[in-house]
Design a protein that fits this description.
Distance between the termini: 93 Å
Number of domains: 2
Number of helices: 5
Helix content: 25-40%
């Protein structure tokens, strides 16, 4: 080992060492760059038909369509559903809207858009204008949210458990949230 060190300490040998190292590096890149592509016999992919402009336009429309999710029961007067839509490809971009069953149109609601983010399904209708649901809150374990679709008024009631949570709320009827006489 000492002989090798002494041999490399000679100035001419050090130059030779650096030169050989550089040549080895150049040779490595030269061989890597001269690699060839080997076909594995999948030549049938080259003969696939291409889509016409009309077919491509139809495919683009289908790929940009949103996935609908029904979040509520039908309103008491039979006019509305609360629905959410998701982007089909990324499964994100959660949008909550009212679906008018009479006209077939989606109606925007800022209260729904900003307040409904993780509802326990289904969302229940209290009357023709008001929905109520339970969801996990940003600030506490659970909250009861009421939204009036006409006025946009939102009310939150935070529910703190008195004992350790051993499960999750699976749903609730409008009667669950109302005032019940004693003994019922």
């Amino acid at each position: 080992m000492t002989r090798l060190r002494s041999a490399l300490s000679i100035p001419g040998r050090r130059f030779t060492q650096i030169t050989l190292g550089a040549l080895g590096l150049v040779a490595t890149f030269t061989f890597a760059a001269s690699a060839e592509i080997i076909k594995l016999g999948f030549d049938f992919f080259e003969d696939l038909p291409t889509l016409s402009e009309g077919e491509q336009a139809t495919l683009d429309i289908l790929q940009t369509a949103r996935i609908p999710l029904i979040l509520s029961s039908v309103s008491p007067n039979g006019d509305y559903l609360v629905i959410a839509t998701l982007d089909r490809l990324s499964q994100s971009d959660w949008r909550v809207q009212l679906f008018n069953l009479r006209t077939g149109e989606l109606e925007e609601s800022l209260a729904l858009e900003y307040e409904v983010f993780s509802p326990t399904l289904p969302i229940e209708w209290l009357d023709n204008n008001t929905i109520r649901f339970v969801q996990e809150s940003f600030f506490g374990p659970w909250e009861i949210v009421s939204i009036n679709r006409v006025t946009g008024i939102v009310s939150h009631t935070v529910v703190y458990p008195t004992e350790e949570e051993a499960g999750e709320i699976l749903g609730g009827s409008p009667r669950l949230f109302g005032l019940c006489p004693a003994g019922l």
